[in-house]
Fold this protein.
Amino acid sequence: MSNALQTNSNSQFDVCIVGSGAGAGPIAYELTKAGFSVVVLEKGNWFTEEDFVKDEQLARHRVFRSQIEDERHVLEEPTVDGKWSSDTSAQFWGGNIVGGASNFMSGYFHRLKPQDFRLVSEFGAIEGANTVDWPISYADLEPYYAKVEQIVGVSGRVVQHPHLEPRSTPDYPLPPTAEHPIAAKFDLACKSLKLHPLPMARGILSVPLNGRKSCEYSGYCGSYGCHSGAKASSRAALLNDAVATGRCKIVTQAKVYRLNTNGAGEVSSASYFDARGKSIDISARLFVVACYSIESARLLLASKGEKHPNGIGNRYDQVGKNLHCCAGGTGHGVFKLDRLAPDVASRLKIRGPFFNRALQDWYVIHDKDAFDKPVKGGTLDFVFDPPSPTAEANSLKWQRGNLLWGTPLKQRLKAHFTQSRDFKFEVFCDWLTNDECYVSLDPDEKDKWGQAVAKVRAGFHPHDLKVAQYLVDKGVEVMKAMGADEAWGNVFTSPTSNLVAGGCRFGDDPKISVLDKNCRVHDCANLYVSDGSFMPNGGSVTPTLTIYANAFRVADKMIEHLGGYRAELG
Amino acid sequence: MARIRAAVTKVERFPHSDQKQVGEQVVDGSPNTTKGHECLSSVSAPLQPLFAYASGLSRRDFLKRTGAATILLSVLGAKPSLLAAKETEPFSIHSKPDNFDVITHAIVETVQMHLFPDDGDGPSAKDLNADRYLLWALDDPGNIEDGDRDFIIQGAAWLEDLADTELKQSFLVLDWSAQAALLTRIANSRAGENWLSLLLYYLLEALTLDPIYGGNPDGVGWQWLEHQSGFPRPMVGKTYLDF
Ligand SMILES: Cc1cc2nc3c(=O)[nH]c(=O)nc-3n(C[C@H](O)[C@H](O)[C@H](O)COP(=O)(O)OP(=O)(O)OC[C@H]3O[C@@H](n4cnc5c(N)ncnc54)[C@H](O)[C@@H]3O)c2cc1C
Ligand code: SF4
């Protein structure tokens, strides 16, 4: 663990960033390189590659995440009888250390596509959904996608297909990561179905870059921290470089609980509790909030001031609204190894390289039998579940409602682990924003610092289920074509708690958005929000590449705001 | 007011279609299911096909079954809900030892052998050091807080009590099949099943966790399951207790 740098409360910084994850890294990286002083306030600790051993216990004991006793969320979900459940939950803490959840991501790094920026114009409004077109276009973000791919290191290979997004660079800067033999089986099956199998872009180094080692294919990737530095976490890929400029301070165990505003409505300081619970203020010229959507909205709502009686940016009651997750589903294909030739079976057993295949043939669905007009579809990613043998073994002790033990349990475990291989696909489609999916402050529940926790109401739109089911069925067809002995899939409506975005969407109209198109809060001139909160919709892919790209774009706007590059840097 | 999902680390995650409802948990007077969507996951790799939403499951059932699997690994402990068992159906025993005395220890060790016998295929509970591992794991502050230690001791005393009242013998001197029959019987009660399930929970940790924690000596469990561990593996000074 690195030592946290000491900061005294009188320090002045050009920029103060709250949070250190994917939304924060690009700001710290770009602003320090432009000559500005940056302080990052992160409520967790600072761990390095040496700490990320592949130990299931770290995750089982939530070592790198907030503990539910200390901090939690209230989660409300719709029930069958038309009511709402209400539980406290720790599921939204994806990673609470320097680098945030990006330390633990799997690094599927697809871009959004031009249609995602103009859902209403392209597909028309859907009743009950709050969809809007974005105030910027794909073309505005494209140079930043290219920049992220270069700087954090994205591996992949561009393959022509009907929904390929326009690119300014012909290919990814790094070749694809090593592939599992199952990928060849997949490609053949897809060709037989006239589909376009794509090597998946990953935020993982296939070759060394900037002092970071390339992937070592431990097979323990998503959910586990990266020991080689290959994973494009905000910490490994961006913050280390920012710190190396000498202009970036990372203050750890700094839980920001309020942004204080002055008579002009601008943020004058951020108040945080340090490790001992003492409140400390930090002042800066510009402030950035990047706490992961739910917590970002919570911080703005909690930051009441004379000019912001309902919280910063909340003049029109928009903060926390239009939150979204990734709608979709998952599916499996199980291959019985004893029915395969021994060499094929032994190759299927290999653990280490990635499956890394995606299908975007149905990113837009043109199927009159299923939908009366073209609708926005999604992506199918074919992947491996992160290994977690203990959880897996424990799940096998139940069979049809009964506890299994003794020899029957042993046989079941053995068969599961040694005689079959389970390959998986994940479906991503839009979680339509709606009036029942939002963040507010819970009136009762408090965290360990006595602050109101965020309440997440997670309502979904029924349209998402139809699209998800359509795509899941396609995934099952592919698994069958691959020769799986069993194949099935299912859609879900629970929030994908690790893939939340929105809540402070950007737009030109302050009445229905929180941020302007540069991600600056409409009614607070020196406050930006640079995590996934800005997204009016998530696209039909995981969001982190887009969060990175947008944060690089916001960094450029902030540099402009501060008067351009510091002269002394030339 | 939100109900506290008190059993958050004890949420039993069932392999999708093989689910079992442990029971309703009462925390603040209102019933609360013990099976949450604590983590989005599908680590439990079901062996049997799921039914899709369209195939007639109620939405709530459907939600419970699917758990919205995505990238995030479900690595939270999958413990049985002890709260439910304790509050609704306490063990009835005459006397309760408050620590692992010799008898309690011997009972637990014997039961572990029933749970994971030496049957000629793969390691037994003994080969896995399951009993030493259990004693070690029960000292973890989190597990103590969960009440696991007391529950294991209480269950052993209950089993002994039952053997004593019904068969007029100590569980320890019953022959193997009589012991097995008694275990099958207690599994019919919720508390008994939870007790066995909790013992299995730790036993399976001893099967699959890194040997640094005391079970799975020399990776004997991994070898049997042909499981390839990750790297770098945890080492002294870098176990979960060191962070
Ligand atoms: C297991 C897993 C797998 C994933 N896989 C993928 C994937 O394959 N592809 C993909 O695109 N995305 C993936 N994601 C999602 C990805 O990690 C997130 O989209 C991304 O990290 C979000 O960035 P962020 O900056 O909003 O939040 P985070 O990265 O979570 O960073 C927020 C940080 O802010 C800190 N913080 C919060 N509140 C405060 C406060 N009040 N004061 C101080 N600090 C605070 C937190 O401790 C945290 O460190 C995955 C996530 C997980 C957990
Ligand atoms: S598989 Fe590669 S990217 Fe993933 S954690 Fe291991 S070294 Fe890092």
Observations:
- The longest strand of chain B covers residues 24-26.
